[in-house]
Design goal:
Strand content: 15-25%
Distance between the termini: 40 Å
Shape: elongated
Order of helices and strands: EHEHEHEHEHEHEHEEHEH
Number of helices: 9
Radius of gyration: 20 Å
CATH superfamily of the largest domain: Tetrapyrrole methylase, C-terminal domain
Number of strands: 10
Length: 245
């Protein structure tokens, strides 16, 4: 979508997809026009080095912190030059980016969005139907005085309607920490986990792993970032057949 305003320059919001070379041909062409290229890197543990990404795109990037993106001030540069914000996966898997577009419209800054694959659709490779997923949730990193368990409420709601649950894991959480938090939060909130859960790691890359095992067995797996957890609900026989293979 392009918003036609009074300025000739454009703000590009570009989804990188899941691999360092997954950017669309169309987006890469527009990227060549940009004087400044920003990268949001605070929401994900990239499955590749940022040096590799710069080489693949042939662009030097400026890394933005969460407060930089949420301030929206950098977008004003698009009044004088073409700029781009690169986002891992697809731009609209995070509500922050919707706010950026609202800001562009309020300032009459032209923008263009390039979508891409993300964890939200790539999990279909597990064999589970995307139509049967409920609300997604995230596991935050616990500390001594901060141990929220509210994400379990989403698992409960999804279970009631027999929907699968995708759990996004916050940055800096190891796999063992994520499993520990999931089990402890489930005990506290009296939620019964299924015997088997799914783990997807580095999905969309050459090093991807899709594992479906008992939690007691899965704890011993070596899982690399980025990874997500899936709590399956009642499955269609085709889902079960694909998953077991």
């Amino acid at each position: 979508m392009l918003y036609h305003g009074i300025f000739k320059m454009v703000f590009y919001l570009i989804g990188l997809g899941l691999n360092k070379e997954s950017i669309s041909i169309e987006a890469k062409k527009e990227l060549e026009k940009c004087e400044k290229v920003y990268l949001e890197k605070y929401t994900v543990d990239f499955p590749y080095s940022l040096d590799e990404l710069e080489k693949a795109l042939n662009k030097k990037m400026i890394f933005l912190k969460r407060e930089d993106v949420e301030s929206e001030i950098f977008i004003l540069e698009a009044k004088e030059k073409n700029i781009a914000l690169l986002v891992y996966g697809d731009p609209f898997t995070a509500t922050t980016h919707s706010q950026l577009i609202i800001f562009c419209k309020s300032k009459k800054i032209p923008f263009k969005i390039f979508h891409n694959s993300s964890i939200m659709n790539s999990v279909g490779e597990t064999g589970l139907s995307l139509y049967k997923f409920g609300k997604s949730c995230s596991i935050p990193k616990w500390s001594e005085n901060y141990k929220p368990t509210s994400f379990i409420n989403y698992l409960k709601e999804n279970k009631k309607i027999k929907a699968h649950s995708l759990i996004i894991v916050d940055i800096d959480i190891t796999f063992k920490e994520a499993i520990f938090e999931l089990e402890e939060a489930s005990k506290k909130e009296k939620f019964s986990l299924p015997k088997k859960i799914l783990v997807v790691s580095k999905i969309g890359t050459e090093k991807q792993k899709i594992i479906y095992k008992k939690i007691s067995e899965i704890k011993n797996e070596e899982i690399e970032k980025p990874f997500s957890l899936i709590i399956p609900s009642k499955m269609h026989y085709l889902e079960r057949k694909l998953l077991n293979q």
